[in-house]
């Protein structure tokens, strides 16, 4: 079968993005062919890949980055599981190309998806509700990662839940946690002033991760500190200090200890403060990676119902062909660029 080439965002080597053709895996009986309408730069995973910080076991160069992409089905196949030609779908990962690494393959104009190149449950296509916009569907992806993490918590009434970081996963976590536990007080710890303003749209309180923030947290919680913490910053220096923000607990049978969930994707080893400082917390620590197909469906449903908001998120839209310039811009702006979406409609 003749090979099929398509235009793609490609990171050729660290700090060098490009927009050029790559070769798709051949179509099979179960292949669904999709066309991307919008995709995105993940300020965590993709920028870590751009800077050469991914572990060698994860990827090699050149590679096709991305996983936040949506589009339309051009050709049906068994992999579609009942979805039809013309349906708008969350496309997400494609994990194999013939001449480039997939990391995680969400940056191509035409996409072949089948059990040979996208076999994980998370990879499956999900139909987008009619009243959810293309841009909202792209922004929904990382919120599904937040939802998978939030489901690890055992919620109780009137809790204080601290979210570290106000990137897309942190913003998603603040909203998801409030949906799952409406009585909870959601607090965000964020170091950057620009991101603090974004956090104010979704959190009940915003603090700085320093001594002043610890004092404010104590004031908010009447000295109790956080019952639960979701770490969403991706900063490897943060997890080892989280005991400072967590309540005491676990000293009696009905005294639930605090719970920390690590939702970040860290580029280096985590270094924890002295063990005795942690040991005295009796803390539960969990972690999760990526999301679930069901979680993608749930976030889209919540957006459709008006429960999950993307209003006020300061994303920028760039032409897909400007991938080189967009990655350079994101790297230069750092925390002051919240999100870049790629528009593929004129490719």
Fold and architecture overview:
The chain is an alpha/beta fold and 347 residues long. The chain folds into 2 domains: 4-143 and 291-343, Quinone Oxidoreductase, Chain A, domain 1 (Alpha-Beta Complex); 153-287, Rossmann fold. Helix content is 23%, strand content 24%. The protein has helices at residues 45-50, 134-150, 168-180, 193-199, 211-220, 275-279, 293-304, 323-333, and strands at 4-13, 16-24, 32-41, 63-65, 70-75, 88-90, 101-103, 110-113, 126-127, 160-164, 185-189, 205-207, 228-231, 259-262, 284-287, 315-319, 339-343. The strands form 4 sheets. Strands 3, 5, 6, 8, 9, 16 and 17 form a 7-stranded mixed sheet that branches. A 6-stranded parallel sheet has the order 12-11-10-13-14-15, with helices on both faces. Strands 1-2 form a two-stranded antiparallel ribbon. It is globular, with a radius of gyration of 21 Å. The two termini are 25 Å apart. The model has no long low-confidence stretch (mean pLDDT 96).
Query: Termini distance?
Result: 25 Å
Q: Largest beta sheet, briefly?
A: 7 strands, mixed
| Number of H- or I-type helical stretches | 8
What is the highest CATH level, the class of the largest domain? Alpha Beta
Proportion of residues in helical segments: 10-25%
CATH architecture of the largest domain: Alpha-Beta Complex
Strand content: 15-25%
Question: Taking Cα atoms only, what radius of gyration do you get, to the nearest Å?
Answer: 21 Å
Q: How do the helices and strands follow one another from N- to C-terminus? A: EEEHEEEEEEHEHEHEHEEHEHEHE
Shape: globular
CATH homologous superfamily name of the largest domain? Answer: Medium-chain alcohol dehydrogenases, catalytic domain
Total number of distinct structural domains: 2
- Based on secondary structure, the structural category is alpha/beta
Instruction: Name the average pLDDT.
Output: 96
Q: Within the CATH hierarchy, at the fold level, what is the topology of the largest domain?
A: Quinone Oxidoreductase, Chain A, domain 1
| Beta strands, count | 17
Which residues form runs of ≥5 with pLDDT under 50? none
